[in-house]
Amino acid sequence: MPEKHLALMVPKQAKKYGDRTALRYREHSAWRDISWREVEDRVRSAAKGLLELGIPEGGMVGIFAHNCPEWTIADFAILSVRGVSVPIYATNTAKQAEYIVNETEIAVLFVGGAEQYRKAVSISATSIFLKKIIVFNSSVPLADPGGRDVYFLDFLVSGRQAAQDLELESRLKKADMNDLATLIYTSGTTGEPKGVMLHHSNFYFSFQAHNKRLSVSDRDVSMCFLPLSHVFERAWTYFALGSGMVVNYCDDTGKIVEYLQEVQPTIICAVPRFYEKIYGAIFEKLEKAPASRKNLFLWAVELGEKVYLRTKEKESIPWDLKLKHRIAEKLVLEKLRKIVGGRIRFFPCAGAPLSRHIEEFFHSVGIPIKYGYGLTETTATVTCHEEYHYRPGTVGKPIYGVDVKIAPDGEILVRGETVTKGYYKKPEATSEVFTDNWFRTGDAGVLEDGYLTITDRIKDLMKTSGGKYIAPQLIETTVGKDHFIEQISIIGDERKYVSALIVPTFTALEDYARSRNIDFASREELIGHPEIVKFYHDRIEANQKELAGFEKIKKFKLLAKPFTQDDGEMTPTMKLKRKVINEKYRDIIDGIYRE
């Protein structure tokens, strides 16, 4: 049974598991362990330190850092004093972080490394609220040591010595599931960010539902990969720790494959882009393989597909298929699974559309994807695949205690105890997203036999000048599964036909160009080569065969530079900011339609 207040989880698990490992992190090329007993001590010391700083009940405290054990310890410490934890994406600009600091009146801010510290110092110069900066990384030089700034390790020492035990116990005794736990700011593809209010009760009911849907235990090992400032990883990490799993922190997303092979987790949350990258890397290598190896690979995956289709429907597997599959396992499938460590039981996946083709590939390899759908406002999960009888291409059925229905205009509506009570200090925005106690998700979808399929964001739906409605995410997922495509943005609103801006996967493209003896001195020269343009035209045509005529990409433009968050073209969760892209590339887009 989950705890009704997240802060109560730590002492309960420390009593149950003692010196057993709770958290692991990488330092100097080796993995270090932190036991449950040590976690409890550090959380308690940090909580007393916060009390010493005068954090009141309901006080907002910020965390501005990349994933690390200190992030989680600080988070639980804030909750232990009945404070409100306010995460800020580690990649946010100083201006974005300042907006959150000022709106929530944050006086104390935990920061990770030099980049976040530098931004925090600049914020403190103008903010009337920020008074204390606590730095996780002890190698970062402090501008005001002993005053405004302090290292986290020193903060723990002073907290451990603080005479705040009675006050801490008093607050923990008053801990209530109706306490506000956190404000998670939506990155938003348009407009200013909104602080989603999530109470301890939201997490309590979410964990109950997940216990009914997922099969997990304290023997599982989780990799904390997505940003903890995102509701998906945050809620999952709480659930993982509450289930007794060991949580490993990925401090460098560029090394995730290396870390997976070292840690060999059984479960890791990821967004579709993660699977697309792995899928692309596998097929990029396959392009260079001899025909015999390609044929063996395709034979093994095809056998894997036959087995998974029967397994998910609880059907028996014929002895001859079982024998062939065993051979396929040894020759190919086991090696593919070792790319992600070799022990994955399932991959929770959400956050964006995932190509059904890619999803089924992973199932066929023996890596089940628990594809689902959710939002910050619903404490992450609304729907996800069940153990059996799931339907690839859908996002599964609603979890326990959550109701879903489709509005007359196609919008997905959600109701349940996991749904937010609203946006912080934004009553008008709150009233706009609720209709008769149903939360309006802003997503369009179809509900059939209990299975939910996402069509697109309501605001992203486009209407051509010919009056045809198109869902850009569907086209992007269908065409973008190609391992020669890194990014794709669909254009078509109020236009005669659909076009696209495409960023190639340059590692694969450059190898292809060399194999065809195509000379190029730069990426710009490469993407302008007629043979390369025709190469992409042919691949796009092959990938969009199943789309309706009005949905098909008629023209496209290859770009030499990817869309990035730094350039304002993507959110921290890697969603395209279509309005920004359309404005920034207006001349190129207009040129497509003039041709």
Helical/strand content category: alpha/beta
How many strands in all?
Answer: 26
What shape does the CA trace take? globular
CATH topology of one domain: Rossmann fold
Strand order of the largest sheet: 2-1-11-10-12
Number of helices: 21
Radius of gyration: 25 Å
Helix content: 40-55%
Major sheet: size, sense and barrel closure?
5 strands, mixed
Q: What is the architecture of one domain at the second tier of CATH?
A: 3-Layer(aba) Sandwich
Question: What's the overall average pLDDT, rounded?
Answer: 94
Q: Report the uncertain regions.
A: none
> Which band does the percent of strand residues land in?
15-25%
**Measured distance between first and last alpha carbons:** 63 Å
Identify the CATH class of one domain: Alpha Beta
Keywords:
Rossmann fold, 41% helix, 26 strands, GMP Synthetase, Chain A, domain 3, alpha/beta, 595 residues
What does this protein structure show overall?
With 595 residues, the chain is an alpha/beta fold. It has 21 helices and 26 strands. The model has no long low-confidence stretch (mean pLDDT 94). Helix 4 packs across helix 5. The radius of gyration is 25 Å and the shape is globular. The longest helix has 22 residues, at 291-312. The N and C termini lie far apart (63 Å).
Give the gist of this structure.
The protein is α/β, with parallel strands linked by helices.
